[in-house]
Amino acid sequence: MGLKVLVTGGSGQVGSELVRFLLNSSSIEDVFAPSSSDLDLFSRDSVLDSISQMQPDWIIHAGAWTQVDACEDDPRRAFLINGLGTRFVVQAAEMVGCKVCYLSTDYVFDGRSTRPYLEWDPVGPKSVYGASKLAGEVEVRSCDLIVRTSWVMGEFGHNMAKTLVRLAKGGNNHGFVNDQIGTPTIVSDLVRSVTDLFLGGHSGIFHISNSGEASWYQVAQFVFETLGEDAGRISPISSEALKGYKAPRPQYSVLDNAALRGSGLSELPEWQDSLAGLVSKLSGGS
User: Fold this and answer.
1) Residue 138: helix, strand or coil by DSSP?
2) Whole-angstrom Cα distance, residue 78 to residue 268?
3) Of 64, 105, 75, 276, nearest in space to 189 by CA
4) Does residue 74 register a pLDDT over 80?
5) What are phi and psi of 274, to 5 degrees?
6) 244 has a pLDDT exceeding 90
7) Residue 2 banded pLDDT, cuts 50, 70, 90
8) Does 129 qualify as catalytic in the annotation?
9) What's the CA gap between 225 and 231, in Å, rounded?
10) For 221, which of 23, 47, 129, 231 could close a Cys bridge (C-beta 3.0–4.6 Å)?
11) Domain extents for the chain?
């Protein structure tokens, strides 16, 4: 008999692909993806009622407020959703006897490292968003999973890959920062790895990102080149030149997938390989 999995945030960028992937998995019996009105992270009663009715074996908690700059304007809302909402999910999991996989972020780190961050490195978020996601991590039990990821891009929702495909077709010149270093993570790779973790009975903190590192400038150049566009239309700029961003971005947020490697699980492909496949899909290719 297969597992029953509940996905919060099932209509979001990661949640949408996760639901689709799980529905095609022979190890999964049922997938629940309640709407935000059916499972309202602001309401403890709503969370407990929804999860108690569905009786899942696992909860993949992808639901969150991820608008980084908006979080700076409304810290209260950020902590209520990302922190207290996670507490409610964990309490519901305790009540029905299931485990939780909490999706977190590279923003829990301060971005000042000169080497990839290990799962055990000290955290120190510099933004409200990062602090609120760390608040969610604090609520998770030792038997649960925490998956930190970075620079997420997929077929659903708003993300940089979609923006770059649109800009490449537009014909104008654009500037992208060359002093923020991270690793693009393609959602299709991420959901496979997350599924391997909970099906394998793992717990604790895992970093999951594609292999390699790059600046946003390098990512933009790669997408343009992949589409056969002139990468010379992309210019490098500094973070200081960016206007309109309220939340500080980590200067360096490459995640070392040490726990994944050490547990004998497959690391994700190089970001260029997976991003090329995503760009092909987004641009109407095969």
Assistant:
1) helix
2) 30
3) 276
4) yes
5) -75, -35
6) no
7) confident
8) yes
9) 6
10) 231
11) 3-282
Separation CA 154–CA 76 (nearest Å): 29
Beta-carbon count within 10 A of 95 CB: 11
pTM above the 0.85 mark? yes
What is the tens place of the pLDDT at every residue in 95-138?
Answer: 999 999 999 999 999 999 999 999 999 999 999 999 999 999 99
What pLDDT is attached to residue 1? 66
Does domain 3-282 fall into CATH 3.40.50.720?
A: yes
| Strand spans (E) along 91-233 | 99-105, 145-149, 152-153, 174-177, 181-182, 185-186, 204-207, 214-215
Please name the residue that has the structure tokens 């077709």. 169
Q: Extract the tokens encoding 286.
A: 């095969």
Work out whether strand 185-186 and strand 204-207 pair parallel, antiparallel, or are unpaired: unpaired
The catalytic position among 102, 129, 217, 252 is: 129
Q: In this structure, how many other beta carbons lie within 10 angstroms of the beta carbon of residue 155? A: 17
Which of 12, 117, 20, 145 has the alpha carbon at shortest distance from 67? 12
Q: Which of 253, 137, 139 is nearest to 205 (CA)?
A: 137
